[in-house]
Backbone:
């Protein structure tokens, strides 16, 4: 008999048919005559109830069917007598694939803290919460590809190992094959990179944007969606050292087109989840964050506020709040400021534009005021910055002047500069942090809990 997934079985249950289901035991209860086993196979948040007659299977087998054990069951699908489910499987045969010692199985009991579950990241996908989160993660990844494909964007694979620092923040992990105890040194004591694998210093990418721009200036509309790496030592609920980023890059888009795309994109993803992931969303809304569904609908139904950085600083300065980090024109906004603007002042998602050039990356298009650049940050409730992007500086002279001003390694960026020399075009793009999106979509409060195996300072187990 062919196995049926529990999701499919529950979607169109046909009573009186013989079925084969396989999965992990969530709970077992009953009396000396009968056992009720709740089985989950990961295909859905919902379990199927297995009813096993102890006189058929014997006490020994049923004793081994404990929480966490893996079994395969054949039997007839019947209308359930009990509450909580419409159908159940009347077991005819039970195969025990893997026992799970009730004394030691870490998920024997419910109600563990998120901190504890992080330490057992190899098992936490078997909990309802993490099952829901990782199914949502999949659904959002799929919806992202669908959105861009339907809009005629091309998925461009930008490199993971690179020689450049796109954001210029110097938060990079080196990539080398040197024996760290015996690095060849030149006469000044610096590493002899010509002897390294790539013959030059390389690192894990912090962003696929620069290569994405090369694609946009040939294919028109592209996006990258891949892992990015930042060695920033920030232990916050919103930072990972390894995270996934979606970076669309569009020829002929100005900043306002860029904002329109960002808003439409996020709203599409939320609508997709509301239409396709309701079982998991309802579970998360009940168990994790009672305001989740309301917040998702609110964002879909309302226009994002668009205003300038300068105006935001004024609002923050006039707020009368006691900020942990000082507010002032020229200073970067911290999460507490961003969240105040979104949650207390505007009470809507906010897009801030025209930031001081000093706090933004070299590639952003310079405004005529000589002080600001055409940056945009999208700020979300509970999160702060979810998207960062800009119109790009397409003017060769202005771009090179900025590179020199910042003392960036001009010669390493020769290929980037050539796109401004040959057929340059106005263009724009942005980066959406995938895990920050998932924080918003799931109501989880720590970014470590929306990626299967989080990488943070001093943490790279599994
Ligand atoms: O604002 P960022 O640094 O922008 C860029 O990297 C641009 N190159 C994007 C572009 O224009 N193509 O990062 C973009 C987004 C942030 O808004 C945030 O959502 C997320 O990436 N992000 C992080 N997410 C998790 N952990 C971190 N350490 C993150 N750093 C940024
Ligand atoms: Mg940013």
Residues:
């Amino acid at each position: 008999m062919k196995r049926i997934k529990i999701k499919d079985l529950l979607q169109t249950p046909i009573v009186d048919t013989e079925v084969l289901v396989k999965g992990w035991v969530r709970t077992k209860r009953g009396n000396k005559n009968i056992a009720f086993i709740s089985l989950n196979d990961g295909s859905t948040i919902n379990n199927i109830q297995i009813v096993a007659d102890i006189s058929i299977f014997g006490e020994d087998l049923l004793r081994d069917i404990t929480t966490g054990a893996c079994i395969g069951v054949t039997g007839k699908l019947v209308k359930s007598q009990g509450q909580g489910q419409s159908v159940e499987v009347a077991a005819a045969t039970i195969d025990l694939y893997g026992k799970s010692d009730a004394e030691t199985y870490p998920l024997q009991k419910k109600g563990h803290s998120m901190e504890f579950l992080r330490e057992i990241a190899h098992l936490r996908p078997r909990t309802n919460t993490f099952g829901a989160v990782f199914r949502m993660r999949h659904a959002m990844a799929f919806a992202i590809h669908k959105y861009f494909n339907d809009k005629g964007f091309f998925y461009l694979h930008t490199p993971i190992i690179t020689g450049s620092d796109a954001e210029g923040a110097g938060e990079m992990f080196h990539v080398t094959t040197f024996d760290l105890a015996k690095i060849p040194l030149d006469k000044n004591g610096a590493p002899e990179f010509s002897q390294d694998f790539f013959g030059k210093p390389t690192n894990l990418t912090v962003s696929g944007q620069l290569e994405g721009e090369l694609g946009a200036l040939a294919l028109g509309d592209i996006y990258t969606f891949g892992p990015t790496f930042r060695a920033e030592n920030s232990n916050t609920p919103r930072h990972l050292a390894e995270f996934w980023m979606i970076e669309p890059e569009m020829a002929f888009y100005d900043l306002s087109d860029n904002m329109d795309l960002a808003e439409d994109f996020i709203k599409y993803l939320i609508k997709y989840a509301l239409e396709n992931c309701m079982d998991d969303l309802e579970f998360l809304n009940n168990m994790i964050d009672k305001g989740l569904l309301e917040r998702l609908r609110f964002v879909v139904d309302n226009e994002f506020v668009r205003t300038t950085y300068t105006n935001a600083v004024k609002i923050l300065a006039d707020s009368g709040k006691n900020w942990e980090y000082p507010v002032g024109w020229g200073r970067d906004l911290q999460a507490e400021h961003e969240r105040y603007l979104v949650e207390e002042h505007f009470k809507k998602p906010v897009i801030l534009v025209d930031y001081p050039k000093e706090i933004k990356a070299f590639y952003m298009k310079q405004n005529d005021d000589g002080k600001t650049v055409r940056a945009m940050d999208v700020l979300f409730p509970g999160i702060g910055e979810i998207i960062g992007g800009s119109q790009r500086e397409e003017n060769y002279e202005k771009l090179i002047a900025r590179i020199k001003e910042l003392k960036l390694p001009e010669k390493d960026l020769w290929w980037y500069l050539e796109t401004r020399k040959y057929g340059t075009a106005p263009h724009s793009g942005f980066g959406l942090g995938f895990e920050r999106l998932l924080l918003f979509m799931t109501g989880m409060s720590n970014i470590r809990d929306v990626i299967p195996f989080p990488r943070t300072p001093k943490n790279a187990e599994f």
